[in-house]
Task: structure prediction
Amino acid sequence: SKLEPEQNNVSKSPLPPEKSSQNALDDSEEKPSAEESKDKNLPDAQSNLGLWGDGKGEDELSPEEIQMFEQENQRLVGEMNNLFDEVRQIEGKVVEISRLQEIFTEKVLQQETDIDNIHQLVVGATENIKEGNEDIREAIKNNAGFRVWILFFLVMCSFSLLFLDWYDN
Result:
């Protein structure tokens, strides 16, 4: 009977579930000073009963209903704890993904500089190959001219020997 006004006050609260849960927390904080809360809550309970009418039979909770609500409350607290743990795990995974994404971004930027360096080297190598091909063409031309001069020299030497042989006879 001493707890009845508090239960009626909590169960008949016209507040939304968040505020009624805050009231339940406030009531749980006030439990150490039970005598003070009884004296304070008794007029409040009576005024609430006046607001809600005198239908005590409708709004009273049986012990089975109280036990059922407590079990449901424990189940909901367990589910909330599970959800909280899952959120923590997801948060950890998101932090890990963010860290890996930063590493990935750094590696991509490093690759970009490496690719630019490789591009510059390839451009330089291409220019060197073009210059080398031009040098080879020039060398082939010079070599062909040198061959012509050697051939001309050998032909002239041969004619000289033939002339000297003819002149000697």
